Amino acid sequence: MLTRELLPVPLTPGGRLDINSGVARLSGKIWATLWKDDRRPAGTAVLIVHPSSNFLGHYALEELASRGVAAVGLATRYAGNDSALIMENCVLDVGAAIRHLRELGYDRIVLVGNSGGGGLAALYQAQAENPAITHTPAGDPADLAAAGLIPADRLVMAMAHPGRAVVYTEGLDPAITDEHLPFDRDPELDMFEPANGPVYSPEFVTRYRQAQIDRNRRITGWALQQIEALRAHTRGSEAPDDLPFVVHGTAADLRFLDLTLDPSDRIARTIWGSPWVANFLPASLGHLTSLRSWLSQWSYDRSRANAYRELPGVQAPVMVVYGSADCAAFPSHARGMYDAVGHQRRELVEIKGADHYFQGRPDLAATMCDHIVEWAG
Q: What CATH number is attached to the domain comprising 345?
């Protein structure tokens, strides 16, 4: 019989106040949902992670448990609010969950990075196998090297992109030249300007992609300057060490409108609907952040949760699963992660017709679960 229980996982404290809720901070816990078959002894646990999505009710949990493994969906300390998210703390949360599962008797852990969890899962496994990080990109203590992280036995990148900073930069609107005036736009770099496309010329794509990176780097430079400038606002012995800010235009990936780029079975849209609307929609990706979170989570050069960079050093077997109709994680993301793995204990699986959330296709979600359980060995 399949049962579901809520797991309280001991929280590894971070070095700063970055959770608004005092109740959450003082509880000393993060939470996970465990689905299992009570007729089976503890054995393999499949842990599904994401930096900020609440995976307590993840669509794959019951399907996985029905195939004989324990299925666990994690909610990190930043569930539902990534405005002050520090990736290094998310690594600590994944580590706490894996340690707790070992203590419950699970001797085999399959770590699944789903969607934006891909970069987090790759960073976790790399640090668990070869710990080295002692500070966040902003210089705050985050001693992953001394955290005793337990490596997962196998790694799965499921409907995943390589990392939040990567996919965020690929969606950053370079037509915005004044961060405070999102509708004062450079027509030469505007994907929504009909004269530019779609279809977009190779020359436009090259200029556009470089301008996206340039904008990300300008924001990073500004964030570093602001962190330094905060020292001037000391009162007595205290000074603020972080500030929130807004980033406009984060859903402007050319692939959202031009299906000839990174060809697949997807339709021309984003997971939030129309690209023009999603580009400014507060609920879409990364509009609200802080100086320190930007460096850890969104900075193209400084964020460490990048599967392209982390997977080459990972020794655990890696499977990459992607959907041919996904409009958030593209075929080139999957191929890039697969190619980044530095050994041959790897597998690349395409699920034909699957979009990012398997909407209306529970049969295809079941197919993904079949692959994961088979990979779990």
A: 3.40.50.1820
- Among 242, 264, 298, which residue terminates a domain? 298
Instruction: Determine the structural domain holding residue 186 and report its residue range.
Output: 167-298
Q: Which tens digit of pLDDT belongs to each residue from 135-163? A: 999 999 999 999 999 999 999 999 999 99
Q: How far out from the chain centre does Cα 334 lie?
A: 14
Residues composing the chain: 377
Q: What sign has the CA pseudo-torsion 309, 14, 147, 372?
A: negative
**Other CB atoms within 10 Å distance of the CB of residue 357:** 15
Rounded-to-integer distance, Cα 68 and Cα 62, Å: 10
- What kind and span of H or E run contains 54? none
How big is the CA angle at 157 (ends 153 and 162), to the nearest 5 degrees? 125
| CA angle 151–156–159, rounded 5-degree value | 145
Specify whether the CB–CB gap between 298 and 110 falls below 8 A: no
Identify whether the C-beta of residue 105 lies closer than 8 Å to the C-beta of residue 45.
no
Contact 340, 320 (CB under 8 A): no
Strands (E), the chain: 2-10, 29-37, 44-49, 70-75, 108-114, 154-158, 244-246, 288-290, 318-323, 346-351
Q: How many domains does the chain have?
A: 2
For residues 65 and 62, give the distance between their C-alpha atoms in angstroms, rounded to a whole number.
Answer: 5
Q: Are residues 318 and 197 located together in one domain of the fold?
A: no
Per-residue tokens: 129: 């196998």
Q: In terms of Cα–Cα distance, which of 143, 125, 130 is closest to 47?
A: 125
The β-bridge partners of 30 are 9
Q: Quote the tokens at residue 197.
A: 């496309």
Examine the domain organization and report whether 277 and 332 are in the same domain. no
Between CA 11 and CA 31 the distance in angstroms is 9
What is the rounded distance in angstroms from the CA atom of residue 9 to the CA atom of residue 221? 37
The reply to whether 29 and 159 lie within a common domain is yes
H/E element, 221: helix 202-229
**Does one domain contain both 159 and 198?**
no
Indicate whether 234 and 348 sit together in one domain: no
Q: What is the residue type of 158?
A: A
Out of 30-34, 38-42, 227-231, the most confident range is 30-34
Does the global pTM surpass 0.70?
A: yes
Q: Are residues 14 and 41 in the same domain?
A: yes
